[in-house]
Prior knowledge:
There is one protein chain. By secondary structure, the protein is an alpha+beta fold. It has helices at residues 3-29, 35-46, 49-59, 63-88, 90-110, 121-142, 169-196, 199-206, 275-279, 312-318, 347-350; strands at 259-264, 271-274, 283-291, 302-311, 332-337, 342-346, 357-362, 365-366, 376-378, 392-398, 421-426, 436-445, 451-458, 464-465, 467-468, 478-486, 489-499, 521-527. The strands form four sheets. Strands 2-1-10-5-6 form a five-stranded mixed β-sheet. Strands 3, 4, 7, 8 and 9 form a five-stranded antiparallel β-sheet that branches. Strands 11-12-16-15 form a four-stranded antiparallel β-sheet, with no helix packed on it. Helix 2 crosses helix 4 (63-88). The termini are far apart.
Amino acid sequence: MPRLALGALSGVLAGFAALAVAELVAAAVRPQAGPVIAVGGASIDATPAPVKDWAIRHFGTNDKLVLQLGILAVLAVLALVLGVLAVRFRRVGAAGVLLFGVVGAGAALSRPDSTGFADALPSVVGACAGALLLYVLVSRLTAVKRSPAPASATEGAGSDVSASEGWDRRGFVLAAASAAAASAVVGAVGRSLNSSRGQGAITSRRHVVLPSPRSPAQPVPKGAGLRVPGISPFLTPTGDFYRVDTALVVPKVDATSWRLRIHGKGVRRPAVYSFDDLLRRELIERDITLTCVSNEVGGSYVGNARWTGVRLAELLAECGVRPPSRGGPADQLVARSVDGMTIGSPVEDVMDGRDAMLALGMNGQPLPFEHGFPVRMVVPGLYGFVSACKWIEDLELTTFDSYDPYWVKRGWARRAPIKTESRIDTPKPFARPKAGTVMIAGVAWAQHRGIDKVEVRVDDGPWQTAHLAAEDTRDTWRQWSFPWRATSGGHTLTVRASDRTGTVQTDRRTRTIPDGASGWHSVVVSVE
């Protein structure tokens, strides 16, 4: 095998070793300090909003996995290049590996949740191990075994060194195989240790018993859920609820040590609450539909769940907070997550009487880690990027003029009430139903205003009123259906909704940025 190809292999093995050692060191520091996670997080922060939207639209909740695989693919290519380069310039190749360690360390230290210099250690130590291994392996490719034996003695089979090739074949194979095996073991141990770091949080969640809410949700009205095959269930199962956030590693927070601090402008009595403090308060339970601002027209990033928590307005009032309408100096409530995410909500909306809460439970169980355990914010009527902070640990009262949260810095709106929207769940796009009565059905939402009417149009025909399922509350979506007498041929089905304020869903198509997509949802079917 040509030496350049073996040099490329050396580079890949060095990269593998660097990542394995970094994984092990990250287990001693924190998983988020690993180079792939740190660089991935920095990449997310630096990615333009349209590109993020494209990734979410095409990869859905797998966007983070795609990002990490992309980072690994780029690292593999660069490792190949450095390995080939190192065959001629060993020190340059090794220095290249060290440079990537510096990049990883810089990314880790730049993260908003960085805990200090220790976050740089996984990348630095891993890069040093990778650079050393690359240097050693490439040395074997240039080392010549010196032997006093005459040339005639070296021409037979079984020689360890080829005088014409000029490299230590056995030494290279042994070093490469040993490095690969050791890296696999080190990486497995590191991954196992990283997984076990969250055991305390997992145990704390397992021991949580949610008290019966003092103000329980009303039973879902009979008829709120239509028996139409293919329609979204009225209450979204927890496992099916959408997840859109920037966390490459889901934070696992121990509820026993979790604290929430409330402070800032106009807070006359700053306070710190524990998880048990919240459990001892009067809990409310409400059915609330959440919507992500990244939801395209007809998209799936909307779900309805039963949330249990503490009224946020009551906590703020206890701290002496007043909304702007009552003379309060702060108009923005900035929520901070344990992973450094910041989300700003209008104080007026949070304290206007709606069921804004610090949620502790979802569908009768403690919050899943993916959805914010131990505590997250839920504010009916606002898109998630201005309300639904997960893994929350800090609430600061400030003003919109003095502080821009994470998404606002990236071109999204400061205020974003959820738009009136509707979706056709069945039939699916490009379905081929039989001629006759075909049930068109779906969901419509206008949280905190309520849905008043849904209309369906076939091709360019007139708008026809659909049947609305019973309403749970104005903060939940409503199912709807329309029996269509389908005739053979291709048809376009379109839906629009009207809310209780009289606003009719607009047909004007807009992008998700800056404040949510708009437009009518249509599907094309072929009736047989």
